[in-house]
Amino acid sequence: GAVAVQHPCLLRWEWMQCLQAARGANSVPRCEGVFDRKNAIGCIGFLPKPAEAGSKLRRVASIAVASTVVGGGSPSTAFPTGVTVLAPGHLAFVLVSANIEVTRHGFRRFGFATNGSVTALHRTLELPAGCVDKIRWMHIGRLRAALRAELEVPEPKPPDGTPWRSLAPALLGNSEVADLARMLFEAVPTQDGGEEAFADPTFDPDPMEALRWTVDLDGTRTEGPDAFRPLANWDELKTRREELVKRGGRTLEGTRKRERDRRTDVAPASRREVGRADDARRRRDEDHLRRRREELPRGGRRDDGRRAINNGSTTQRREDAPRPS
Fold first, then answer.
1. Angle 36-40-44 (CA atoms, 0-180°, nearest 5)?
2. pLDDT tens across 31-89, in order?
3. DSSP designation for 249
4. CA angle centred on 172, ends 171 and 175, rounded to 5°
C-alpha cells in the first residue's frame, strides 16, 4: 500500500476553523488539513535555523490560502485543494478583506495580542518586523476603505431586463484601489527567502489565555454593507491595549467562580451533623410514604362512595359497608 511521507521537519497544516469543543474539555479542537499525495504543499519541510546553545528550536508558522476545502468523516480532518503558500507579509492583504466578527465560541477571527503578536481564532503568530505596524496599518485601512466605497456605489440596472447573472462581471474602473494595493504590496516584505513567522511561545499553547489578552480590531459602527467594515486606527488600538493591561485581561464567560455550597464552608464536625440531619429527614419521608401506602385501599373508589377490594377477577365489599337487600 501507499506509505505516507515521514520527516521530522515536515509541516503540518491546520484549517483555521473554530470547532465545537466537547463538554468539559479545556482544550480547543483542531482541524488538520490533509493534502492529496499529488499536492507538493503537503510534502513541504522546513529546517529551522540552528538555535543558540541551550535553547530550543522555535515552531515555524506558514500561512496558506485554499480555493476549496472538503470535509471528511471526522470533524478534525479537512481536505483543502487549490492551496497557495503566502509570505508573512501577505497577511496584510488578508486583514484588508478579513471578517473581524466574534465567533460563537468567543474567539476573534483576527486581533492583536498585548505583546504585539497577531491572533487568528485560537492561534497566535509572531510576524517578522515590517509586516503589520503603524505605517502598514494605515495602508491596510486606506485600501479597506476604498474597497468599501466601491461597494456603496449603486450598480446600474441591466439593459432590456437582461438577468444580471448573464452579464460580464463588473470591473473596477477609475478607482484608487489598484494604486493603494500596489502601495501596500511594496510596503510589506513579500520576497522569497525572507524572515519566517513563528508560533507565539506565550499565547499559542494556551488559546483561552490568548483570548483574555486579545485587542479587538473593529472600528466605529457605520451604516452600509457589513463587508469591509472600518478598522480602528492605530492610536485607538494602543488605547485599548493599555486599558486591557490595566484591567488585567478580559473576563471570559464561564470562568467566574461559582458560588460554593454552604455545606463546603462548614467545619468537618458540622458536616457530620448536617449528614445525620439529612439521613433523619430522609427516613421520616420514607416512613411517611410507607404509611400513606398502607392507608390507601388496594382497589378504587366506587361511584356511590363505598370502597371495594379487588381480589383477582372478583370484587369483595368491606364488611363495614352496607349490604344491598
1. 115
2. 888 887 777 777 777 766 766 766 777 888 888 888 888 887 777 888 888 888 888 99
3. S
4. 165
